[in-house]
Amino acid sequence: ADKINLIPQDFFAELCEQIIQHLNHKIPGVNTAELCQRIQTSGVEINVGDLAKIATVISFLFSTAARNNLSTEELVTTLGSAVSVLPKHAVQVIRHVWNEQGKSISVSEDARNMATVGQFVDIKWKLGVAMSSDTCRSLKYPYVTVTLKVADPSGQITDRSFEMTIPQFKNFFRQFKEMAAVLETV
């Protein structure tokens, strides 16, 4: 509640709306790193970890309310003692967002099972050449750096990076071609 109190109402509303969109499978996840950077730019001291925890709690709140088909008033009443702890602006935002968009959350069993794996969002790669190191004067070997942007089951978007040698990359590429060929037969 103390951390929620730090977040300005407009940013908290944006966070809640992104969570609803994620639960509706309209976006792959909530980019808490980007949102946190914007909040910090506005002069508020909050770190990404705290914002991610808040997003997880709000996501749990909305998904549980959807599973139980709660009305807006039932949701606010169910928050009960938390309402006295939560900042007034947060309760107002939760009430408003749930009232406007809460009923649209789909809670199909397939969607819940899929969400436990995470979701691929984007891929970036670059080719590099290692020229030398402190233990070897002349390396001159090429490598590929791949960065995957993935939304974990809670909706947090994270980057995962790894490097591959050229033979490893060729194997990686071959496997993607095989997947594409199988997908074309479906």
UniProtKB/TrEMBL annotation:
This is COMM domain-containing protein 6. InterPro entries: COMM (IPR017920), COMMD4/6/7/8 (IPR047155). Scaffold protein in the commander complex that is essential for endosomal recycling of transmembrane cargos; the commander complex is composed of the CCC subcomplex and the retriever subcomplex. May modulate activity of cullin-RING E3 ubiquitin ligase (CRL) complexes. Down-regulates activation of NF-kappa-B. Inhibits TNF-induced NFKB1 activation. Belongs to the COMM domain-containing protein 6 family. Residues 119-186 form the COMM domain. GO terms for molecular function: NF-kappaB binding. It comes from Caloenas nicobarica (Nicobar pigeon).
